[in-house]
Amino acid sequence: MNQRMGERLLAQHKMNSDEKDNISCKKHCPIHEYSHLQEFIDNLPYVIMILLGAAIFFTSIKSVIPTGLYILYGIVGAFWIIIFVCPYCHYYSTRVCPCGYGQIAAKFRKKKDDILFVEKFKKNIPVIIPLWIAPIVAGGVSLKLDFSIWMLALIILFAIDSFVILPLLSTKYGCAHCPQKDTCPWMRHKS
Ligand code: SF4
After folding, report:
1. Where are the chain's structural domains?
2. Which letter, b or e, does each residue of 69-102 get, where b requires 16 or more Cβ atoms within 10 Å of its Cβ?
3. Is residue 102 lining ligand 1, measured as CB closer than 6 Å?
4. 99 CB within 6 A, ligand 1
5. How far is the CA of 89 from the centre of ligand 1 (A)?
6. Nearest to 101 by CA among 75, 68, 64
7. Contacts of 90 (CB under 8 A, 6+ apart)
8. CA 69 to centroid of chain Cα atoms
9. What is the pTM of this model?
10. Nearest residue CA, atom 1 of ligand 1?
11. Angle at alpha carbon of residue 139, lines to 134 and 144, rounded to 5°
12. Which among 81, 83, 168, 191 has the fewest CB atoms less than 10 Å away?
C-alpha cells in the first residue's frame, strides 16, 4: 500500500470518527485493506457477467468472432476504468480499493486530482454500458427467431448477475464506505 495515501486515508477516517454527527456512512466500518480473496469476490460478478454474455453470443450467433470480441470488450472495459477513472480516486494505489483496480492503475498512470473524479466517472462509465445491453439484445433477437429454453435461462442468469448481484455487491460491499461516495454519480442516490 502507498504509505502516504494510507496515512491520509487513516487520518481522514479518524477525522470522520471525531465528527460522528457528520458521518454519512451509518455502518461506521473502519477503513481497512482488502485481501486478495476479497478483491476476487468483488470482481466475481463482473467476470461471471462477461462469461454469461459470451455464452449468449456463442449460443445465439454460433460464431467465435462476436463471442471473442465481447470477451475482449470486457477486458478492455475494465482497463478503461483502471486507466481513465481510478487515477482520480481516493483509493488509487492502495489496498483500500475493494476490487484491486486502484493498485493496477498505479502501474499505468500517475495520481491525478481527486476533484475531477466525478467528471471522469461520468465521462467514462458510458464506455462500458454496452457490456450490459449487447447480450440481452443478441439473446432477445435469438429468442424471437428461434425460441430455446437454454437461451432464456442464459438471459435470465445474465440479467440476475449483471442487474441485481453486481450492483448490490458494489453498493453494499465495495463502495459502501468509500470516502467519495457522496459525490460519486453511482453511489450518490443509493446511500
Ligand atoms: S474504488 Fe473504484 S474508482 Fe477507486 S480505485 Fe478502486 S475501482 Fe478505481
Report:
1. 33-174
2. ebbebbeebbeebbebbbbbbbbbbbbbbbbbbb
3. yes
4. yes
5. 6
6. 75
7. 9, 114, 117, 178, 179, 180
8. 20
9. 0.81
10. 97
11. 130
12. 168
- CA of residue 87 to ligand 1 center, whole Å: 8
Ligand 1 centre from 8 Cα, in Å?
16
Residue (of 74, 21, 83, 85) closest to 51 by Cα position: 74
Q: Is 89 in the pocket of ligand 1 (CB under 6 A)?
A: yes
